Amino acid sequence: MAIAPRTETTNHWATQSWNCSPEGLETFGPINLVVLQPTSYCNLNCDYCYLPDRHLKNQMSLDLIEPIFRQIFTSPFFRKDITVCWHAGEPLAVGVDFYEQAIAQIHQAEVEYKEQPYAVHHSVQTNGILINQAWCDLFQRHNFHVGVSIDGPAFIHDLHRQTPTGKGSHQGTMAGIAQLQKNQIPFNVIAVISQDSLDYADEIFNFFVEHGIRDVGFNMEETEGVHSQSSLDHADIEERYRAFMERFWQLTLASPGVIQVREFEILCRLIYHGDRLTQTDMNHPFVIVSIDHQGNFSTFDPELLAVSSDRYGDFTLGNVQRDSLASVCQTEKFQAIYGDMLAGVNQCARDCQYFGLCGGGAGSNKYWEKGTFACTETYACRYRVQVLTDIVLEHLENSLAHPS
């Protein structure tokens, strides 16, 4: 997933409980991120993508913008500034004019429905291929935060990020990045780590440095949605993954201020400040709200919205044209999903020594790896939290034992 997790922190943790009374709902949210899927269509056919309908040119009607933001602004979960992230399939495929009209309607909805002083920010996660001057003008006009998906140099990126006809997309993505740099638009990148990346930490690091890419996040290739098997889901891969991340961490430390890596930044902040997590945005209700091109909405992980499961059915909780965000908390589906989600988090709190640096992880990883939210450790836990924590702590211990 391309979205950096915000987390709730504390210095202690205990088993959590919940209820859906009006008082109970006050513990849900506040909304931090609204993920809007303006189209299911993507101009690429990445082989590790979880989305089932990325070949279909479904597009969100502008008539949905008013009900979407009416539901957001009048919700009891709207209690702070929000970021609207335009995401999945390729959000720029709907064109500049769509965004100009959508943002104008969001401003109008703020006037009509927003009674709190909280701000609305915009971000977009794109493969970068369509970025041109018109897009850069829009990003600057509306102060977008831009995230670009690129896996490193072409010989790695083009293995997986291909067009529907099988051509590599690296050149097009780099042209988009060049447009952002020409316009001095800050951006971060998300790189997916697959088995094919693991022997090339130096090459990936040097590629980012040489191209002025300073803000990097790593997403591991995940077993998720229609992508039924990650190349990383093997016990014998873990040592190679650890070696890759350890080498990238060494390169980052050796060049202070050149690159910041999201995963290490988050962990180091928690460790240095002594904060510990009790939950994440992806396992606590209505911190994230995801809405598809038809106005269907869900919460927890954005990846859940477009897929269905044997255990829970689809993860759509309601539709903005008929349901309020709070009303769906009374449904059997929500209560089954959240009951299992919370059971899994509580199990993690009891059993896992890394819990304070993880907060119980992401339900989507738990479901797709183990078939339920009510479980604990996954490959995603091992790779995203445990291996990285061990690397950081080992470095700290060595630096204390051998101060320079």
Features:
single chain; 404 residues; alpha/beta; ten-stranded mixed β-sheet; two-stranded antiparallel sheet; 12 helices; 37% helix; 15% strand; disordered N terminus; metal-binding
How does the SSE layout of this entry go?
Blueprint: E1 7-10, H1 22-25, E2 33-36, H2 65-73, E3 82-86, H3 96-113, E4 120-126, H4 133-141, E5 145-149, H5 154-160, H6 170-182, E6 187-193, H7 201-210, E7 215-220, H8 238-254, E8 260-261, H9 262-273, E9 276-280, E10 288-291, E11 296-299, E12 308-309, E13 313-314, E14 318-319, H10 332-351, H11 363-370, H12 379-401
Parallel strand pairs: 2-3, 2-10, 3-4, 4-5, 5-6, 6-7, 7-8
Antiparallel strand pairs: 1-9, 10-11, 11-14, 12-13
Gist?
The chain contains twelve helices and 14 strands. It is α/β, with parallel strands linked by helices and 404 residues long.
